[in-house]
Amino acid sequence: MPTDDISQRYLEKAIAEINDLSREIAHEAGADRAPVLGSGHPQADLFLLKYGPQTAEQHEGVAFFGRAGQAVLKSLQRLQVDPTAIYGTNCLKFAGADEEQAREWLAREIHIVQPKLIVVMGQDAVTCLNAVRFPLATEIASQPGSIQKFTPTIEALVTPDLDASLDEAPAKKDFWEAFKAIGPWWSEQPPY
After folding, report:
1. Global pTM exceeds 0.85
2. Which of 26, 112, 141, 159 could form a disulfide with 17 if both were Cys (CB 3.0 to 4.6 A apart)?
């Protein structure tokens, strides 16, 4: 079987699994709460993780919609990172979500996407990711800007909370100082 066929089958499987997870999250949210689903490439090298959705994300139902998404895209452009190699999500998928259920969904998302680098935005997201107890994972330390080993195949980069960093120049600078570690990491990756 040609490599392109195998790659296509893995992509189709990842799309189907993300769609199944999205339907499950929407069902669990019910009619009274708007789920905020992950977005991006289902086999992305970069997995962006925030703790909870903001108002614009809740309104649209998509993670990284609005100011946060625009800031990330602008930052990725500066670093010459292919935006199609990104998947973004939140730990909590809707208001009032059960944290244990949220961690199970996050573990499934990571299993489906199989990223090479998880960008963990803020202490709450670090705490959530560490609580997932992902197989073969080591605990991520709160060391902004330092790429750490998360599992044998996944690294992690901690940054300040993106949403909390958008309104003040010093906070934006701190976020950028940590986030820009993606640039050298990305340049060492094989073409996407």
Report:
1. yes
2. 112
